Amino acid sequence: MIKLKSLACGYGEKQILKGVSLQISTHLTILGANGSGKSTLARAICGLIGYEGEIEINSLNFKRVSLQERAKTLSYIPTKLESYDAYITVYEFVLLGRFAYKKSYFDYSLEDKERTAQTLKFLKIEHLSTHTLSSLSSGEQQLTLIAQALTQESKIIIFDEPTANLDPHNSKIIAEHIKALKEQHQIILITHDLHLACFVGSPIAFIKEGDLTLYGDDFFEDENLERLYGVAFSAMSVRYE
Question: Tell me, what's the pLDDT at 93?
Answer without folding.
Answer: 94
